[in-house]
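Hello forum,

I keep getting stuck at the same step: I have a sequence, I want structure tokens, and every attempt I make locally crashes halfway through. Rather than fight my setup again tonight, could one of you with a working pipeline run this one for me? It's a single chain of 251 residues.
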Amino acid sequence: MKARHALALLPLAALALMGRATANTAPASAGGIYTCTNDQGRKLTSDRPIADCLHKEQLLLNRDGSVRSVIPPTYTAEERAEREARERRAAEQRAAQFDAQRRDRNLMARYPNEAAHGRARELAMESLRSAIAATERRLKELAAERVPLTNEAEFYQGKPLPMKIRQQLDANDAAVEAQKSAAANQAGELERMNKFYDAELERLRKLWGGAPPGSLGPLPVAAPVTPAEPTGPARPASGLRPPRPASAASR
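Reply #2:
Ran it on my machine without issues. Output:
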């Protein structure tokens, strides 16, 4: 009887052994251990996410101690906004640094030596000096146009000046003021241009000397405005007209 009972128990024992073997060979990922270091420097572990470390990174470890994954912090709305703003600023700084490096490399490619930079300065100055010379010529033309108007106005001393002559004199005055304003702007632009090329040359000397591109910050002087085309002798509003070309007068 006992023998039969023992034989009946054999299948149950075999099943138990198989179940234990299955449990021993189960993958380690079936469970996990959360671990972190809290604000007081104490290392914490748990079988679930740790409440004291929700604002910090937590490691999810396998049973053998290897890292299965990194659990990122849980942020509040304000913390998320601050983090995004910080990341945005960092991205903008990286982009600005990249642009600064690119500009410096382009600058050195454009001006491989001081002679090339000097030629570029002279070319820019030539254009601006041409505009200044055109303004000076126009002022002389306006002065010459005013002489017959002044002479004609002398005949009316003590008498009302005819409207036509008054309009011509006013138009001449306005044209002179406009040209003087242009001359002042051109003089200021000439000074700004010289300062810009001086600052650019100083930067290039440092780059030629081995300074890393992008390490010198922005130029302290803004780039000059491209000089406008020289101002020609526009038709006065007073009614005085510039001489017509001979080909046109003969038609």
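The mean pLDDT is 81. If your local run keeps crashing, start a new thread with the error log.
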